[in-house]
Amino acid sequence: MASEGGEKPEVFGVERVAVTTRSYDWIIPTLRLLAFFATLAAALVMALNKQKKTFVVATIGTTPIQVTLTAKFRHTPAFVFFVIVNGIASLHNLLMLIVNLVGRKFDYKGLRPLVIAALDMMNVALVSGGVNAAAFMGQLGRDGNSHARWNKICDKFESYCDRGSGAMLASFIGLGLMIIVNIISIVKLRNHKLVNSSIVP
């Protein structure tokens, strides 16, 4: 309630919320930087993952018939999608780091926190879909599927599968970091609205 002298009403807790928010401003950029490196590493390792191996498929007399096969990520659509979404996520985190440094000057009507939270959520969904699709194909390559008569390949292309597993692990780490960033962004958005709604002219 306003005072009789026409002074502005006191708003308890608003200053504390603002100070607390500012004191933890370093957390999101740090998590974003770690997520950037994790998703970038995942995309690069999977994109560069390739192994060539020669197999003996038959023997004519004493002469072995050999065939050389190459395992590449682009042979599997799920791995291609994995590379694309992790590349998008790393680019997103890099752009958000830049926005965190210079974007405060271009905050149109206070929409910046809302837009960032929405973009974070979209990237979490993309990376989650990509890494889970890749993990499914990785499990199929490691164990095969006897019911569908799909043979495993990881007993033949060990290095290829090991590097793919490392890329998936990095992507899962990046996904976890991005989920934490998304949660913090939503909490900050709520605090931002709380501060704005509490300041009554």
TrEMBL record:
The chain crosses the membrane at residues 26-48, 79-102, 114-137, 167-187. It is a multi-pass membrane protein. It is found in: Cell membrane. Coiled coil: none annotated. Keywords: Cell membrane, Membrane, Transmembrane, Transmembrane helix. It comes from the Eukaryota. GO terms for cellular component: plasma membrane. The keyword Transmembrane applies. Residues 26-175 form the Casparian strip membrane protein domain. Pfam families: CASP_dom (PF04535). Belongs to the Casparian strip membrane proteins (CASP) family. PANTHER family: CASP-LIKE PROTEIN 1U1. Homodimer and heterodimers. This is CASP-like protein. It comes from Fraxinus pennsylvanica.
